[in-house]
Specification:
alpha/beta, six-stranded mixed sheet, 19 helices, binds beta-D-glucopyranose
């Protein structure tokens, strides 16, 4: 059988087939103690001095490099797609694939036993250990989607989730996890928004950086991807995203920069698309200038699967490892790279640098010191890991709207009707290479469509309905919602109706619009007409529109909530858990409000066409910044999220400190139940200082408070949040003057504003802040 994914790729098919009391900065500091496995005091073999774990990873890499032949060095730069399937596609019919790759996994790079260099066993992805489509997928724990974890606004939760999936990766025999997805949400229809961290560079950078750090605490390398501007799936292999250096550094690149400082990933995965005319995987500006020179990244750049397009060009412009052969047109970094080095097109120094970077990643994350021991999956504690996933889901669920008295579900309700989305048996997950299969398989076999990549559409066997039944004495019934009349009739009779709305998204396609597909908007409207006490629970990849919003009583955004998602939803609906998720992305009232109302590109374009997409339209003004700039009113703003309790924010004081300022304020739980609030501080220059948007998120904190409890917190603002990037001098500059500092509960709900005067500051492009204060 030939891989579905591989065929889809060849055909160019893009159409379809807890409580935290630490600021993001302080949290980063508190967990900044990787690697987790302290090197055991063992004898260092005389002939392998690089095994001395007390040495700096760069020193160790140099020691081993001295012993390696050119062929061995270059072997580390070439990776295979790893499946147990027979390759039958013409150009690679006679290619010999190594056998040691793990079944149906993303990739494999052979090691060098004579020197003790371990194999690299690579697995997707950001929500857990994925399996390529296979009749026998591994059952593993899935976290909620990336955008859901961003909705927790809780770096501790992101770290714990990363540590959990990294542990499952390690015990599954993998030492490289292709996680760390964080392309900023510029296109609400992007099929992979669910894998990323939302629209704000600070929030996305902090959350993803912590997930990476958690993964790597298991001696498993994490990537950070897709570098960069892989903002949509349509024409992802060709699309050329145009963006200025300044706007880039203040938006998507800033998110990566922050995540890199916090997570210190061993590897960065370059993207499929082009940026300013050049493929991301042979883009001198992105790879050599920004990543390696400006930020001082010492690890290696691996290509996305099929994103390598040349040998000499790619090697010289910064790609260190071609991944996932045979997704590319040619094995560019196999024999051809050796010839390029022999002929001087790629210098020997660069060949050394490529190998050194791979080795640096392996040494720095501990792949030599605590090698994977093969399949130890019987040791995975699924119960414990399920709880970690559930905590993430519970903190990520956003209560968007609530009519007092409707949620949490009243204990006096005698009948609850549940409609749609297979909520009787499970919860939805996102499709594509990141697909994690649940232990026990999907409870909805009929939904195993589309048959090819990015399917099958997979549900996790965690039933919201069973979770609700376990927590109520009401009679709970389920209807699939296909028959509108029957749904309306049943809704009339029920005390409360909960309609589950879903939007399945996946890698390789974008959704055509922001409506719920397959007539679900009509279903919700019909049910809401029949019963005012209608609660809508959404499972979506990202923002959707809600034509029925005015007519329903409550709306809950549950994202793709992971393998314990049904339990998490039930706990939130019944009030066992007080919702505390806040939107990591603006929900527009209509797609016309977004920078590109018409989706760029065309799925029908052939693989050699070069469509262009202008990211200078929004530039660094993404999401709420765009809405502010254009004076638009969204459906729900960035940062929005309700609770079953009430909070009071106040006593804001801002004081200049160091290169930026500190903000102190008080948060009080003024309601009757314990809850977590997400206090947000935004900043804006009083005078025009060349900002691309009126205001920016400066810092945030999730605070857990008992009823009546109040806490005063002081947060330090990363100086880049008040700076603009100056391409000419390659530095960040803070303009002297007054700044408005706004304490808020969302990007549009400002509670208190004070001013602070900042002195002019200039600091180098690569100055590290996320871990430094
Ligand atoms: C995806 C990557 C993934 C890789 C390996 C690609 O199609 O874009 O995110 O890590 O495949 O499966």
């Amino acid at each position: 059988m030939t891989s579905y994914r591989f065929l889809a790729h060849l055909a160019g098919t893009t159409a379809l087939i807890g409580a935290l009391a630490l600021s993001p900065v302080a949290f980063a500091q508190a967990t900044n103690n990787a690697p987790a496995v302290a090197a055991a005091k063992t004898e260092v073999p005389k002939d392998r001095p690089w095994m001395d774990a007390s040495l700096d990873p760069s020193v160790r890499a140099d020691l081993i490099l001295k012993e390696m032949t050119l062929a061995e060095k270059l072997q580390l730069t070439f990776g295979y797609f790893s499946t147990n399937q027979t390759w039958q596609v013409t150009p690679i019919k006679n290619y010999v694939f190594p056998k040691e790759g793990l079944p149906d996994s993303a990739g494999f790079v052979p090691g060098i036993p004579r020197l003790g260099i371990p194999n690299q066993w690579q697995t997707d992805a950001g929500v857990g250990v994925a399996t390529q489509r296979s009749p026998n997928p591994r059952g593993r724990t899935a976290l909620p989607s990336g955008v859901a974890t961003a909705a927790t606004w809780n770096p501790a939760v992101a770290y714990a989730g990363g540590a959990m999936i990294g542990n499952e990766a390690f015990l599954s025999g993998f030492n490289v996890q292709l996680a760390g997805g964080m392309n900023l949400l510029r296109e609400a229809r992007n099929g992979r928004n669910f894998e990323y961290g939302g629209e704000d560079p600070l929030l996305a950078g902090v959350i993803t950086g912590n997930e990476i750090k958690g993964i790597q605490s298991n001696n498993v390398i994490s990537t950070m991807k897709h570098f960069a501007f892989n903002g949509q799936e349509t024409n992802r292999n060709q699309m050329d995203h145009q963006i200025s250096d300044k706007a880039a550094r203040e938006s998507d690149l800033l998110a990566f920069q922050i995540a890199n400082e916090i997570g210190q990933p061993g590897s960065v995965m370059c993207a499929y698309n082009r940026v300013n005319g050049f493929y991301a995987c042979e883009n001198n500006w992105l790879l050599n200038d920004v990543l390696k020179t400006d930020w001082g990244f010492k690890g290696y750049v691996m290509s996305d699967w099929g994103a390598t397009h040349s040998t000499t060009q790619a090697a010289n412009q910064g790609l260190d490892q071609q991944s996932g052969w045979a997704f590319d047109r040619s094995p560019y970094f196999d024999g051809a790279l050796r010839e390029a080095v022999n002929n001087g097109y790629v210098s020997e120094a660069r060949a050394n640098d490529m190998a050194r970077r791979v080795l640096w990643g392996m040494f720095s994350v501990g792949l030599f010191d605590n090698p994977v021991k093969g399949d130890q999956s019987s040791r995975i504690d699924f119960v414990k890991n399920g709880k970690i996933s559930q905590t993430d889901a519970e903190e990520s669920i956003v209560l968007l709207k609530n009519t007092p008295g409707l949620l949490p579900l009243s204990r006096t309700a005698r009948s609850i009707l549940i409609v749609g989305s297979h909520a009787d048996v499970g919860v939805l997950s996102g499709g594509g290479s990141s697909q994690v299969y649940p232990v026990g398989g999907s409870p909805v076999p009929d939904e195993f469509a589309p048959n090819g990549f990015p399917g099958p559409k997979t549900y996790y066997p965690s039933s919201p309905m069973k979770g609700i039944q376990a927590r109520t004495s009401a009679t709970v019934t389920y209807l699939d919602g296909k028959d509108l009349k029957a749904a309306a009739a049943a809704a009339k009779k029920a005390d409360v109706v909960i309609v589950f709305g879903e939007q399945w998204t996946g890698e390789s396609f974008d959704v055509p619009d922001l409506n719920l597909p397959n007539g679900q908007d009509a279903l919700i409207s019909t049910v809401a007409k029949a019963n005012k006490k209608t609660v809508v629970v959404l499972q979506t990849g990202g923002p959707v529109v809600m034509p029925w919003l005015k007519n329903v009583g409550a709306v809950v955004e549950a994202w793709y909530p992971g393998t314990s998602g049904g339990e998490a939803i039930a706990r939130v609906l019944t009030g066992e858990v007080n919702p505390s998720g806040h939107l990591p992305a603006t929900f527009p009232a209509s797609i016309d409000q977004t920078p590109r109302p018409k989706l760029e590109g065309d799925p029908k374009l052939d693989a050699d066409s070069h469509p262009v997409s202008d990211y200078n339209i929004d530039g660094a003004a993404i999401g709420y910044k765009w809405f502010d700039k254009k004076g638009l009113k969204p459906l729900f703003p960035f940062g929005h999220g309700l609770s079953y309790t009430t909070f009071q924010l106040g006593s804001l004081v801002a004081e200049a400190k160091g290169q930026s300022f500190i903000a102190s304020f008080n948060v009080k739980n003024t309601g009757a139940v314990e809850g977590k609030d997400v206090a947000q501080v935004y900043v804006s220059p009083v005078e025009d200082s060349g900002w691309e948007a009126p205001k920016r998120l400066a810092t945030f904190l999730k605070v857990d408070l008992k009823p009546g409890e109040s806490r005063t917190v002081t947060l330090t603002v990363d100086p880049r949040m008040v700076a603009t990037y100056d391409p000419a001098s390659k530095s960040w500059k803070v303009a002297e003057g007054y700044y408005k500092v706004m304490l808020a509960t969302s990007a549009t709900d400002i509670v208190q504003t004070v001013q602070v005067r900042l002195d002019a500051q200039t600091f180098g492009v690569g100055t590290h802040f996320a871990n430094a204060q």
